[in-house]
Amino acid sequence: MSLHSRRTSVLLAAATALVLGISACSGSSGSSDSSSSGSSTAGFAVDADTLVFGVVPDSVDTETNYQPLMDYIAQETGKQVEYFESTDYAALIEAAIAGKIDVASFSGFTYVTAKNNGAEISPISSIVTEEGQQPGYYSEAIVPADSPITSISEFRGKKVCFVDPSSTSGYLFPSYNLLQAGINPETDITPVFAGKHDVSVQKVGEGTECEVGFAEDSEVAKSDAVKVVERTMVPGAPIVVSDALPADIKQRVTDVLSNVTVDQIVAAGITSADTDGFRSVFFETEPVDDAYYDIIRDICAETNAKQCQS
């Protein structure tokens, strides 16, 4: 849950190639046609009784971390909430473009990319993990715990673990920071895409497939096999809602998710939220808007990243 990239067009072009179409394992039986004229399904990804909640599995705990929030949405809207785990960031982007999700948790970069490619979605809020925080988290540059490396400037020539070409904290900001350190992420390093933040941490800790790397702070904090050499604040990952939803449902979801604390969720009877695991990743949501992600657009412009563009 848990803000900075330059000419990374080659690697990001590869990411664009991943945007091929929504995976058949979306979990929705009979994927609903968003152009349906039936009043019971129009505007919904599946039907009027269901809200599809899309995520990318950034770690092995992704579904567990989101379940209390989905339970709360279900209770407050009277809808069944269906968990949609996309295969990667590109698949979540395509799902949003195709109208296959009603609510979703994006990375900042994924959200901007989805919007640039025609997804009709709006950011509602971002999850804050600790009291007093601003919506945001850290992209951390990591090395093995016993490594003599002390800064990103020493990453030149190394095998570098990234998360995914469409990951904000696991690729976009790290690439920008490398460029700021005078290291071209296309030619001066050997990139390795781990797929998930926890896997990036694991591989760096092992020090073989990856000598150094990047991941978000919440996953880095779980490992004593790596240490942080630099960190950059990233705008908080947005929870978004589909603009295609009927106005009253969209407003209800927005009201439910815009500003709610873990204690309010527990008080509402969602006992699954009252655990150390959920409290470690969720303190409250704070409202954000589209303009909050302009820094992502600025970095896209500086890097001329093809993935950012429509």
Structure report:
The structure is a single chain. Helix content is 34%, strand content 21%. The chain is an alpha/beta fold and 310 residues long. The strands form two sheets. Strands 2-1-3-10-4-11 form a six-stranded mixed beta sheet, with helices on both faces. Helix 2 packs across helix 8 (247-258), helix 3 packs across helix 4 and helix 5 (168-180) crosses helix 11 (294-303). The chain folds into two domains: 9-130 and 237-308, D-Maltodextrin-Binding Protein, domain 2 (3-Layer(aba) Sandwich); 136-235, D-Maltodextrin-Binding Protein, domain 2 (3-Layer(aba) Sandwich), CATH 3.40.190. Residues 1-39 have low confidence and may be disordered. It is built from eleven helices and eleven strands. It is globular. The longest helix is centred in the first third of the chain and has 16 residues, at 62-77.
TL;DR of this structure?
Helix content is 34%, strand content 21%.
CATH topology heading of the largest domain: D-Maltodextrin-Binding Protein, domain 2
Tally of separate helices: 11
* Cα Rg: 19 Å
Strand order of the largest sheet: 2-1-3-10-4-11
Low-confidence stretches: 1-39
Q: Please give the largest β-sheet.
A: 6 strands, mixed
Q: So what's the overall shape?
A: globular
Percentage beta strand:
15-25%
Overall helicity: 25-40%
| Assembly state of the chains shown | single chain
CATH superfamily of the largest domain: Periplasmic binding protein-like II
Structural class determined from secondary elements: alpha/beta
